[in-house]
Protein backbone atom coordinates (compact mmCIF):
# COMPACT_ATOMS: atom_id res chain seq x y z
CA UNK A 1 0.00 0.00 0.00
CA UNK A 2 1.51 3.28 -1.09
CA UNK A 3 1.80 6.19 1.29
CA UNK A 4 0.42 9.53 0.13
CA UNK A 5 3.12 12.11 -0.08
CA UNK A 6 2.69 15.16 2.06
CA UNK A 7 2.37 18.52 0.37
CA UNK A 8 5.56 20.60 0.39
CA UNK A 9 5.55 23.27 3.11
CA UNK A 10 5.31 26.11 0.60
CA UNK A 11 2.31 24.60 -1.18
CA UNK A 12 0.61 23.74 2.11
CA UNK A 13 1.04 27.32 3.34
CA UNK A 14 -0.24 28.72 0.04
CA UNK A 15 -3.29 26.43 0.20
CA UNK A 16 -3.92 27.43 3.82
CA UNK A 17 -3.64 31.14 2.98
CA UNK A 18 -6.02 30.75 0.04
CA UNK A 19 -8.52 28.89 2.22
CA UNK A 20 -8.28 31.61 4.87
CA UNK A 21 -8.79 34.33 2.24
CA UNK A 22 -11.86 32.58 0.83
CA UNK A 23 -13.27 32.18 4.35
CA UNK A 24 -12.72 35.89 5.02
CA UNK A 25 -14.29 36.85 1.66
CA UNK A 26 -17.39 34.77 2.41
CA UNK A 27 -17.85 36.44 5.79
CA UNK A 28 -17.21 39.87 4.26
CA UNK A 29 -19.86 39.27 1.60
CA UNK A 30 -22.30 37.87 4.18
CA UNK A 31 -21.79 40.94 6.40
CA UNK A 32 -22.26 43.35 3.48
CA UNK A 33 -25.33 41.43 2.30
CA UNK A 34 -26.92 41.81 5.73
CA UNK A 35 -27.31 45.57 5.19
CA UNK A 36 -29.63 45.62 2.13
CA UNK A 37 -31.45 42.61 3.63
CA UNK A 38 -32.13 44.45 6.89
CA UNK A 39 -32.98 47.78 5.25
CA UNK A 40 -35.47 46.01 3.00
CA UNK A 41 -37.02 44.24 5.99
CA UNK A 42 -37.37 47.58 7.77
CA UNK A 43 -39.40 49.00 4.88
CA UNK A 44 -41.20 46.09 3.23
CA UNK A 45 -42.25 44.35 6.48
CA UNK A 46 -44.87 47.08 6.82
CA UNK A 47 -46.83 46.27 3.64
CA UNK A 48 -48.95 43.46 5.14
CA UNK A 49 -49.42 45.59 8.29
CA UNK A 50 -51.02 48.58 6.54
CA UNK A 51 -54.69 47.49 6.75
CA UNK A 52 -54.28 46.72 10.50
CA UNK A 53 -52.45 50.03 10.97
CA UNK A 54 -55.23 51.92 9.21
CA UNK A 55 -57.82 50.44 11.59
CA UNK A 56 -55.70 50.90 14.75
CA UNK A 57 -54.73 54.52 14.02
CA UNK A 58 -57.95 55.44 12.16
CA UNK A 59 -56.04 56.65 9.09
CA UNK A 60 -56.65 56.34 5.33
CA UNK A 61 -54.74 54.10 2.92
CA UNK A 62 -53.08 57.24 1.51
CA UNK A 63 -51.84 58.18 5.00
CA UNK A 64 -50.51 54.66 5.59
CA UNK A 65 -48.65 54.84 2.25
CA UNK A 66 -46.85 57.97 3.51
CA UNK A 67 -45.14 55.80 6.14
CA UNK A 68 -43.18 54.28 3.23
CA UNK A 69 -42.89 57.60 1.41
CA UNK A 70 -41.42 59.68 4.25
CA UNK A 71 -38.66 57.09 4.75
CA UNK A 72 -37.77 57.26 1.07
CA UNK A 73 -38.06 61.04 0.62
CA UNK A 74 -35.57 61.69 3.43
CA UNK A 75 -33.20 59.10 1.96
CA UNK A 76 -33.43 60.66 -1.53
CA UNK A 77 -31.86 63.94 -0.36
CA UNK A 78 -29.30 62.47 2.04
CA UNK A 79 -27.95 59.58 -0.06
CA UNK A 80 -25.68 61.79 -2.27
CA UNK A 81 -24.27 63.46 0.88
CA UNK A 82 -23.62 60.04 2.43
CA UNK A 83 -21.95 58.92 -0.80
CA UNK A 84 -19.68 61.97 -0.84
CA UNK A 85 -18.75 61.43 2.83
CA UNK A 86 -18.03 57.75 2.19
CA UNK A 87 -15.62 58.71 -0.60
CA UNK A 88 -13.75 60.98 1.83
CA UNK A 89 -13.86 59.58 5.37
CA UNK A 90 -14.41 55.88 4.59
CA UNK A 91 -17.37 53.57 3.94
CA UNK A 92 -17.55 51.91 7.39
CA UNK A 93 -17.43 55.28 9.16
CA UNK A 94 -20.66 56.18 7.36
CA UNK A 95 -22.39 52.77 7.39
CA UNK A 96 -22.15 51.86 11.11
CA UNK A 97 -23.52 55.17 12.54
CA UNK A 98 -26.26 55.06 9.88
CA UNK A 99 -27.37 51.60 11.05
CA UNK A 100 -27.48 52.94 14.61
CA UNK A 101 -29.68 55.89 13.57
CA UNK A 102 -32.03 53.53 11.71
CA UNK A 103 -32.41 51.37 14.80
CA UNK A 104 -33.28 54.42 16.93
CA UNK A 105 -35.91 55.44 14.34
CA UNK A 106 -37.50 51.99 14.62
CA UNK A 107 -37.68 52.30 18.42
CA UNK A 108 -39.38 55.71 18.18
CA UNK A 109 -42.01 54.46 15.67
CA UNK A 110 -42.66 51.35 17.77
CA UNK A 111 -42.99 53.35 21.00
CA UNK A 112 -45.42 55.82 19.39
CA UNK A 113 -47.55 52.93 18.06
CA UNK A 114 -47.55 51.24 21.48
CA UNK A 115 -48.02 54.12 23.90
CA UNK A 116 -49.96 56.78 21.95
CA UNK A 117 -53.50 56.67 20.60
CA UNK A 118 -52.75 59.47 18.13
CA UNK A 119 -49.09 58.68 17.47
CA UNK A 120 -49.26 58.79 13.66
CA UNK A 121 -47.07 61.90 13.36
CA UNK A 122 -44.44 60.57 15.76
CA UNK A 123 -44.41 57.31 13.75
CA UNK A 124 -43.62 59.43 10.69
CA UNK A 125 -40.77 61.14 12.59
CA UNK A 126 -39.35 57.74 13.54
CA UNK A 127 -39.65 56.61 9.94
CA UNK A 128 -37.87 59.79 8.78
CA UNK A 129 -34.98 58.89 11.13
CA UNK A 130 -34.94 55.41 9.61
CA UNK A 131 -34.67 57.12 6.22
CA UNK A 132 -31.66 59.13 7.48
CA UNK A 133 -30.00 55.86 8.46
CA UNK A 134 -30.99 54.12 5.23
CA UNK A 135 -29.29 56.88 3.23
CA UNK A 136 -25.91 56.04 4.74
CA UNK A 137 -26.23 52.26 4.87
CA UNK A 138 -27.48 50.22 1.89
CA UNK A 139 -26.40 52.66 -0.90
CA UNK A 140 -22.80 52.68 0.38
CA UNK A 141 -22.55 48.88 0.09
CA UNK A 142 -22.29 49.01 -3.73
CA UNK A 143 -19.13 51.16 -3.87
CA UNK A 144 -17.69 49.22 -0.90
CA UNK A 145 -18.02 45.99 -2.91
CA UNK A 146 -16.12 47.71 -5.72
CA UNK A 147 -13.39 48.72 -3.25
CA UNK A 148 -12.94 45.31 -1.61
CA UNK A 149 -13.17 42.93 -4.57
CA UNK A 150 -10.57 43.39 -7.27
CA UNK A 151 -11.64 41.72 -10.52
CA UNK A 152 -14.72 42.79 -12.49
CA UNK A 153 -15.90 39.18 -12.39
CA UNK A 154 -15.80 39.17 -8.57
CA UNK A 155 -17.48 42.57 -8.39
CA UNK A 156 -20.35 41.46 -10.69
CA UNK A 157 -21.01 38.22 -8.82
CA UNK A 158 -20.75 39.98 -5.43
CA UNK A 159 -23.15 42.71 -6.52
CA UNK A 160 -25.50 39.98 -7.73
CA UNK A 161 -25.36 38.48 -4.24
CA UNK A 162 -25.98 41.90 -2.66
CA UNK A 163 -29.01 42.45 -4.91
CA UNK A 164 -30.19 38.91 -4.13
CA UNK A 165 -30.04 39.67 -0.39
CA UNK A 166 -32.07 42.80 -1.11
CA UNK A 167 -34.70 40.77 -2.92
CA UNK A 168 -34.54 38.01 -0.30
CA UNK A 169 -35.46 40.70 2.20
CA UNK A 170 -38.49 41.48 0.08
CA UNK A 171 -39.45 37.78 0.07
CA UNK A 172 -39.10 37.41 3.83
CA UNK A 173 -40.69 40.80 4.62
CA UNK A 174 -44.37 39.98 4.04
CA UNK A 175 -44.08 36.62 5.81
CA UNK A 176 -42.16 38.01 8.79
CA UNK A 177 -44.24 41.21 8.92
CA UNK A 178 -47.51 39.24 8.88
CA UNK A 179 -46.21 36.79 11.49
CA UNK A 180 -45.06 39.53 13.91
CA UNK A 181 -48.17 41.65 13.35
CA UNK A 182 -50.28 38.57 14.14
CA UNK A 183 -49.14 39.00 17.77
CA UNK A 184 -49.15 42.83 17.97
CA UNK A 185 -49.55 44.97 14.85
CA UNK A 186 -46.62 47.31 15.71
CA UNK A 187 -44.12 44.55 16.57
CA UNK A 188 -42.33 44.92 13.16
CA UNK A 189 -41.17 48.40 14.27
CA UNK A 190 -39.43 46.91 17.33
CA UNK A 191 -37.92 44.02 15.37
CA UNK A 192 -35.96 46.39 13.13
CA UNK A 193 -33.50 47.71 15.80
CA UNK A 194 -32.59 44.10 16.64
CA UNK A 195 -31.74 43.44 12.97
CA UNK A 196 -29.66 46.65 12.84
CA UNK A 197 -27.65 45.57 15.90
CA UNK A 198 -26.80 42.24 14.22
CA UNK A 199 -25.61 44.03 11.07
CA UNK A 200 -23.49 46.48 13.09
CA UNK A 201 -21.70 43.58 14.79
CA UNK A 202 -21.09 41.81 11.47
CA UNK A 203 -19.72 44.98 9.87
CA UNK A 204 -17.50 45.77 12.85
CA UNK A 205 -15.85 42.35 13.09
CA UNK A 206 -15.84 41.00 9.53
CA UNK A 207 -15.46 43.89 7.07
CA UNK A 208 -12.00 45.36 6.62
CA UNK A 209 -11.96 48.23 4.17
CA UNK A 210 -8.82 48.77 2.07
CA UNK A 211 -6.89 51.89 3.02
CA UNK A 212 -6.59 54.54 0.36
CA UNK A 213 -3.00 55.50 -0.43
CA UNK A 214 -4.05 58.94 -1.61
CA UNK A 215 -5.17 61.94 0.40
CA UNK A 216 -8.83 62.97 -0.11
CA UNK A 217 -9.07 65.55 -2.86
CA UNK A 218 -10.58 68.99 -2.26
CA UNK A 219 -14.32 69.36 -2.79
CA UNK A 220 -13.92 71.74 -5.75
CA UNK A 221 -11.69 69.24 -7.60
CA UNK A 222 -13.92 66.33 -6.60
CA UNK A 223 -17.02 68.19 -7.84
CA UNK A 224 -15.30 68.93 -11.17
CA UNK A 225 -14.42 65.23 -11.61
CA UNK A 226 -18.01 64.17 -10.88
CA UNK A 227 -19.24 66.82 -13.34
CA UNK A 228 -16.84 65.50 -15.99
CA UNK A 229 -18.12 61.95 -15.40
CA UNK A 230 -21.68 63.12 -16.05
CA UNK A 231 -20.67 65.05 -19.16
CA UNK A 232 -18.82 62.05 -20.61
CA UNK A 233 -21.33 59.37 -19.51
CA UNK A 234 -24.56 61.39 -19.28
CA UNK A 235 -26.45 59.36 -21.87
CA UNK A 236 -26.17 55.93 -20.27
CA UNK A 237 -26.01 57.18 -16.67
CA UNK A 238 -29.26 59.17 -16.98
CA UNK A 239 -30.88 56.14 -18.62
CA UNK A 240 -29.72 53.88 -15.76
CA UNK A 241 -31.03 56.36 -13.17
CA UNK A 242 -34.40 56.56 -14.94
CA UNK A 243 -34.69 52.76 -15.24
CA UNK A 244 -33.81 52.33 -11.54
CA UNK A 245 -36.53 54.81 -10.50
CA UNK A 246 -39.13 53.13 -12.73
CA UNK A 247 -38.26 49.63 -11.49
CA UNK A 248 -38.74 50.66 -7.84
CA UNK A 249 -41.94 52.60 -8.63
CA UNK A 250 -43.41 49.51 -10.29
CA UNK A 251 -42.24 47.13 -7.56
CA UNK A 252 -43.44 49.12 -4.55
CA UNK A 253 -46.64 50.16 -6.30
CA UNK A 254 -47.28 46.51 -7.10
CA UNK A 255 -46.65 45.45 -3.48
CA UNK A 256 -48.98 48.14 -2.10
CA UNK A 257 -51.73 47.18 -4.56
CA UNK A 258 -51.41 43.46 -3.84
CA UNK A 259 -51.42 43.98 -0.05
CA UNK A 260 -54.62 46.05 -0.21
CA UNK A 261 -56.41 43.75 -2.69
CA UNK A 262 -55.61 40.50 -0.84
CA UNK A 263 -57.14 41.78 2.40
CA UNK A 264 -60.01 43.94 1.16
CA UNK A 265 -61.18 41.96 -1.90
CA UNK A 266 -60.23 38.40 -0.95
CA UNK A 267 -60.20 38.68 2.88
CA UNK A 268 -56.78 37.00 3.03
CA UNK A 269 -54.90 38.07 6.17
CA UNK A 270 -51.93 37.42 8.42
CA UNK A 271 -49.36 34.77 7.46
CA UNK A 272 -51.40 33.44 4.53
CA UNK A 273 -51.38 36.93 3.05
CA UNK A 274 -47.62 37.19 3.67
CA UNK A 275 -47.02 33.90 1.88
CA UNK A 276 -48.99 35.06 -1.18
CA UNK A 277 -47.09 38.37 -1.25
CA UNK A 278 -43.86 36.35 -1.08
CA UNK A 279 -44.62 34.42 -4.30
CA UNK A 280 -43.81 37.21 -6.82
CA UNK A 281 -40.98 38.39 -4.55
CA UNK A 282 -39.55 34.87 -4.49
CA UNK A 283 -39.56 34.87 -8.30
CA UNK A 284 -37.74 38.23 -8.17
CA UNK A 285 -35.13 36.87 -5.72
CA UNK A 286 -34.39 33.74 -7.78
CA UNK A 287 -34.14 35.75 -11.00
CA UNK A 288 -31.76 38.23 -9.36
CA UNK A 289 -29.54 35.44 -8.02
CA UNK A 290 -29.31 33.62 -11.38
CA UNK A 291 -28.64 36.86 -13.29
CA UNK A 292 -25.94 38.02 -10.87
CA UNK A 293 -24.16 34.67 -11.18
CA UNK A 294 -24.15 34.67 -14.98
CA UNK A 295 -23.60 38.23 -16.24
CA UNK A 296 -19.95 38.29 -15.06
CA UNK A 297 -18.39 41.34 -16.81
CA UNK A 298 -20.33 41.11 -20.08
CA UNK A 299 -21.86 44.60 -20.40
CA UNK A 300 -23.56 43.81 -23.74
CA UNK A 301 -25.36 40.91 -22.06
CA UNK A 302 -26.33 43.24 -19.19
CA UNK A 303 -27.96 45.62 -21.67
CA UNK A 304 -30.07 42.93 -23.36
CA UNK A 305 -31.12 41.32 -20.09
CA UNK A 306 -32.25 44.77 -18.89
CA UNK A 307 -34.17 45.32 -22.13
CA UNK A 308 -35.83 41.89 -21.95
CA UNK A 309 -36.65 42.26 -18.24
CA UNK A 310 -38.40 45.61 -18.69
CA UNK A 311 -40.43 44.27 -21.63
CA UNK A 312 -41.49 41.27 -19.53
CA UNK A 313 -42.63 43.70 -16.81
CA UNK A 314 -44.64 45.72 -19.35
CA UNK A 315 -46.48 42.77 -20.92
CA UNK A 316 -47.27 40.96 -17.65
CA UNK A 317 -48.63 44.07 -15.93
CA UNK A 318 -50.70 45.07 -18.98
CA UNK A 319 -52.26 41.58 -18.89
CA UNK A 320 -53.72 42.32 -15.45
CA UNK A 321 -56.34 44.57 -17.02
CA UNK A 322 -58.05 41.45 -18.46
CA UNK A 323 -58.74 39.52 -15.24
CA UNK A 324 -58.89 40.00 -11.45
CA UNK A 325 -58.89 36.34 -10.46
CA UNK A 326 -56.44 35.70 -7.65
CA UNK A 327 -54.28 33.07 -9.38
CA UNK A 328 -53.94 35.30 -12.48
CA UNK A 329 -52.87 38.34 -10.42
CA UNK A 330 -50.23 36.31 -8.56
CA UNK A 331 -48.97 34.71 -11.81
CA UNK A 332 -48.62 38.04 -13.65
CA UNK A 333 -46.95 39.76 -10.70
CA UNK A 334 -44.55 36.79 -10.50
CA UNK A 335 -43.59 37.31 -14.16
CA UNK A 336 -43.03 41.00 -13.37
CA UNK A 337 -40.87 39.92 -10.44
CA UNK A 338 -38.72 37.80 -12.76
CA UNK A 339 -38.23 40.83 -15.02
CA UNK A 340 -37.33 43.14 -12.12
CA UNK A 341 -34.97 40.56 -10.61
CA UNK A 342 -33.12 40.25 -13.93
CA UNK A 343 -32.73 44.02 -14.36
CA UNK A 344 -31.43 45.05 -10.93
CA UNK A 345 -28.04 43.20 -10.85
CA UNK A 346 -27.33 44.41 -14.40
CA UNK A 347 -27.88 48.06 -13.47
CA UNK A 348 -25.79 47.70 -10.30
CA UNK A 349 -22.88 46.17 -12.22
CA UNK A 350 -23.03 48.65 -15.12
CA UNK A 351 -22.83 51.62 -12.77
CA UNK A 352 -20.30 50.24 -10.26
CA UNK A 353 -17.90 48.91 -12.90
CA UNK A 354 -18.31 51.94 -15.18
CA UNK A 355 -17.13 54.54 -12.64
CA UNK A 356 -13.65 55.13 -11.15
CA UNK A 357 -13.18 54.20 -7.49
CA UNK A 358 -12.68 57.81 -6.26
CA UNK A 359 -16.11 58.95 -7.49
CA UNK A 360 -17.89 55.58 -7.23
CA UNK A 361 -19.57 56.30 -3.88
CA UNK A 362 -21.10 59.55 -5.11
CA UNK A 363 -22.33 58.22 -8.47
CA UNK A 364 -23.80 55.01 -7.03
CA UNK A 365 -25.44 57.08 -4.30
CA UNK A 366 -27.18 59.27 -6.88
CA UNK A 367 -28.38 56.08 -8.55
CA UNK A 368 -29.67 54.84 -5.16
CA UNK A 369 -31.44 58.19 -4.67
CA UNK A 370 -33.26 57.71 -7.96
CA UNK A 371 -34.33 54.23 -6.86
CA UNK A 372 -35.72 55.77 -3.67
CA UNK A 373 -37.69 58.26 -5.79
CA UNK A 374 -39.55 55.25 -7.19
CA UNK A 375 -40.00 53.74 -3.71
CA UNK A 376 -41.39 57.05 -2.40
CA UNK A 377 -43.76 57.72 -5.31
CA UNK A 378 -45.12 54.19 -5.90
CA UNK A 379 -47.40 53.53 -2.88
CA UNK A 380 -49.16 56.95 -2.71
CA UNK A 381 -49.64 57.04 -6.51
CA UNK A 382 -51.22 53.56 -6.47
CA UNK A 383 -53.35 54.48 -3.42
CA UNK A 384 -54.81 57.46 -5.33
CA UNK A 385 -55.40 55.41 -8.50
CA UNK A 386 -57.06 52.57 -6.56
CA UNK A 387 -59.48 55.06 -5.02
CA UNK A 388 -60.43 56.63 -8.36
CA UNK A 389 -59.59 54.65 -11.52
CA UNK A 390 -58.07 51.31 -10.60
CA UNK A 391 -57.91 50.10 -14.20
CA UNK A 392 -55.64 53.01 -15.10
CA UNK A 393 -52.88 51.90 -12.75
CA UNK A 394 -52.07 48.81 -14.86
CA UNK A 395 -51.61 50.94 -17.97
CA UNK A 396 -49.49 53.44 -16.00
CA UNK A 397 -47.15 50.73 -14.67
CA UNK A 398 -46.98 49.03 -18.07
CA UNK A 399 -46.31 52.33 -19.87
CA UNK A 400 -43.48 53.18 -17.48
CA UNK A 401 -41.96 49.73 -18.05
CA UNK A 402 -42.02 50.33 -21.83
CA UNK A 403 -40.30 53.69 -21.24
CA UNK A 404 -37.57 51.86 -19.28
CA UNK A 405 -37.16 49.38 -22.17
CA UNK A 406 -36.81 52.24 -24.69
CA UNK A 407 -34.24 54.01 -22.48
CA UNK A 408 -32.24 50.77 -22.31
CA UNK A 409 -32.36 50.21 -26.07
CA UNK A 410 -31.53 53.78 -27.08
CA UNK A 411 -29.12 55.03 -24.41
CA UNK A 412 -27.14 52.09 -23.02
CA UNK A 413 -24.57 51.20 -25.69
CA UNK A 414 -21.65 49.28 -24.19
CA UNK A 415 -18.77 48.35 -26.43
CA UNK A 416 -18.54 44.67 -27.40
CA UNK A 417 -15.88 42.80 -25.43
What's the domain count? 1
**What fold name goes in the CATH topology slot?**
Growth Hormone, Chain: A
- Enumerate the spans where pLDDT stays under 50 for 5 or more consecutive residues: none
Radius of gyration: 22 Å
Task: Give the biggest sheet.
Answer: none
Question: What structural category arises from helix and sheet content?
Answer: mainly alpha
How many β-strand runs?
0
CATH architecture: Up-down Bundle
The chain-level mean pLDDT equals 85
**Going by CATH, what is the homologous superfamily?**
MFS general substrate transporter like domains
How far apart the termini lie comes to 52 Å
List the SSEs and their pairings.
Blueprint: H1 9-44, H2 50-57, H3 61-89, H4 91-115, H5 120-135, H6 138-148, H7 152-183, H8 187-206, H9 219-264, H10 270-294, H11 299-319, H12 326-354, H13 357-388, H14 390-411
